Each structure stands twice: as C-alpha cells, then as structure tokens.
Amino acid sequence: MTAPNIETIVSLAKRRGFVFPSSEIYGGLGSAWDYGPLGVELCNNVKQAWWRWMVYERDDIEGLDSSIILNRLVWKYSGHEDTFNDLLVDCRKCKSRYRADKLYEEVGGSGTFSGSIPAGSKCPTCGESDWTDPRPFNTMLQTRLGATAEDDPSSVAYLRPETAQGIFVNFANVLTTSRRKLPFGVAQIGKSFRNEVTPGNFIFRTREFEQMEMEYFVKPGEAESAHQEWIDACYSWFTSLGISADNLRLYEQPKEELAHYAKRTVDIQYRFFPEREEPERQWDELMGIANRTDFDLRTHSKKPEDAEGKRLNPDSTEDLSYFDEVNKERFYPYVVEPAAGVNRTVLSVLMDAYSEKTNDKGETRVILKLHPALAPIKAAILPLAKNKPELVGMAKAIKRSLQPVLRAVYDDTGGIGKLYARQDEIGTPSCVTVDHQSLEDEAVTVRDRDTWEQERVKVADLQEYLLERLKE
Ligand code: ATP
To answer: I need a surface site. Which of 114, 294, 383, 445 has the fewest CB within 10 A?
Structure first.
C-alpha cells in the first residue's frame, strides 16, 4: 500500500512534525515549507544515503560544496540568462497565470507541448477560454550584492538554479588537486532556487529546494554507455531505498523537451498523483539523468573560437580541456549528470512507506514503513511503567548507551499501546520495552514496526542487534 494522495502525507507531516508550512503564523509564504524535528532527520538520512552510495562506495567520485551565489558571468556563459525560461500564459478573464507546458497537460493536450495552448482550452480556474500568447519568463531568482544603488546593473546576482555550474567552474581545481584521470565524477548536495511560476503540490515544487547532483566526466566516445549505466544505477538506488518498482518508471524526454545543453535525457518518474484518473498524469519527475555533452566545459573555457578566430568566451581565464596522456590528445570531456531533488525523494519515500494496519481492537493504525536507514528515529526506548524509578532509570540508561551510535529516543508519556502506535506512525523500526522482568534478566523486549512481533534481547547485545536491523 502507498499513500492514496499527497494530501494524506501533508496532514501526517504536519501532525507529526515532519514538515510545516513556512512562516505559518504570518499566513505562510506561497508554497514554502519548513522541515521539523523528524523532517530534518529524514532529509539528512536521504542525503547521507545518497552521499555514501555516490561518493564513498565508489572509487571514481569526489565531493564538492560550491557557493550558492556565483559570478554572474557563470550564468551568462552557461546559457541560463538567455534560456532558463518557462513559457507563461495568462487567462485574460480571471488573470490566473500558468506555466504553459503544465497547462497543456492539464487541459489534456495530446503528445508533447510545442509552444501553444490548443484553441478552446478552458481555464482550470474560471472555465473561460481567453488566453494570452505564451511568453518567456526567466526563472532565475535575482538578488543584489553590496550597498549599491537599486538600479545599478552591475550589482545583479542570481541564487543558483542548479548546483551543477559550481562543479563545472571548479573542474580544473578538482582535476589538479585530486590527480584524477577520466572517467571521474564530482558530487554536490545543496540548495537551488527557481522563481517557479506555479509552485505547489506540497514539497514537490517549491522556489527553494535542495538538489543532489553529480557530474561524471568521460571521453566523448564513452558518454552514451556511461549515460545508460547511470540511468540503471539511479533506478536501482531508488528501489534500494525501499521504493516500489510499481511506482517508478523511466521517461525518455522527447527532443523538443531537451534542455539546450542536452543530447539525451531520461527522467526517473514517481507516481506522485495516484488519485488522478488518467494513468499518464499520475507520474512526474523525481530525477533527471542527462548527457550534457561537452557543452559546459567548452562554454566556460577561454580557448574556443568562432570562424573568424574570435574567442567565444572572452571573460574566462581558464581552459577546461583535458589531456589524455595515453593517446596524447586534448579534448573537452563529455558530462553525464544524474540530478535528483532531496525534497522530491523525501516525498516519494514518505508516500511509498505509507500504510495502514488494523489491530485486534479493530482500530486502524498508520505505519510508515520507511527503510530503516532513512527512519528519523532508529529506536524508541519505552519503560512499561513510568512510576517505577528502577524501570525509568534502566530505560534512560539504555537510551544513553545507544545514542552515540544511533538516533534513539526515550518516551514515557502514555500507555505502551499508544507509544507503539506513535512510533509506527513516524517509521521507527524498533521499540525497546523495559519491563519488570528486565530488572532481573537484564533483557528487554524489541518490537518490530512492520510485523508487530516481539523478541527478547539481552541488554548487552542490544546495540549490535539494532544496528543489524538497520541494514535490512
Ligand atoms: P520540472 O520539469 O519538474 O520543473 P526540471 O526538469 O526542471 O523539473 P531539473 O532541472 O532536471 O528539473 O532538476 C533536477 C531535479 O531537481 C528534479 O528532478 C527535481 O527532483 C529537483 N527540482 C527541480 N526543480 C524543483 C523545484 N522547483 N522544487 C523541488 N524540486 C525541484
């Protein structure tokens, strides 16, 4: 079972402290969200899982953390200033504004969006059919640096719309300091910003979000096979997080949809909208895996020239080409880029983990069957009676002994049934109950979240036992 819709997750997230509407006491801010005590743990666990898989468990990837605000020239030469646009259309009657490609899907346009809304399409807000022509809107979020005049154009800067460019402009730095040979990659996790026309669907589309991106540099002739390998590897990574293959699919971007730098892009889509009648509209992008060719390293390099011998990039001070010692040749590496969103990954794992179970009393309980590695809390230590100082003391001591190695909590604010239900709902894989018998036999009861089965475990073996279960 998965969540029937995003709304189910919105209410669970608010009720239990995963995600809150941002600036709520002032009426919120469009679709900005804050991650609460459990949400921050879940995000951190997703990022850690990605970093471990991407960087530590391979031999060919380095890490990087570049600035959010870069020299404006980066965005000029990357093409973002000219082309990082969404097409907008307005309904002349009710003034609602839409992203043209999304509106096209919503009004049931067939095939891929080619730049215009079919005549007669009705506005989803007012039902009329009176549209402006689509026009481009640059979605980079602008800011101004320093104490300069409001209208001084030289103070304009952008909050990065992708983390990738910070990697490209550091290509030579990483290459020389790490003494890498192709193929190798550079991974980065960080915030990105886009002035989205129509943010929404909870944390699916926001103006501030977090990305996990890796740029894999290869010889031009090896890009296609490397691309396919990364598509397969990323798909397997999501299933390794416990996401059901029934809710994942690959989507080959048609040529008209490709970004200006991409030769081929395959998205991994998740069934974010299972409630939608039309099967095709149930899916949306979780991550994109692009073959960016040599566009980025070439465009940021000082050397390439046009037919008249004029430098294409007169501002760059570096040539980002690569010298292959074996074949004694110099070229611009191709780039394969797996780019995932932290927030969309969090939303998909929450939706996929959602399930309900009925207990002996006929009460329906929510169980969040998160992969143990992602669960915000790994073990809850619960005394059977809170008015027995020996039990409380023993439970607290167990919690303290576990906390250096795993996230454990102590809770005595309810009867045991209620405490179990609370932990099930937030995805805690193990509840550890300290009872009267524990004082005699130095053992505790460990209850499993998914099966509700119980096992007696010696306190001395508890840490190892719990760590073992996290690997499942
Ligand atoms: P979309 O078509 O949904 O706008 P995109 O194709 O522009 O997404 P990419 O540029 O490929 O997205 O970015 C890589 C990943 O970053 C996306 O797959 C998604 O997980 C995440 N992402 C992009 N934009 C947003 C956003 N506004 N809010 C949350 N996550 C986002």
So the answer is: 114
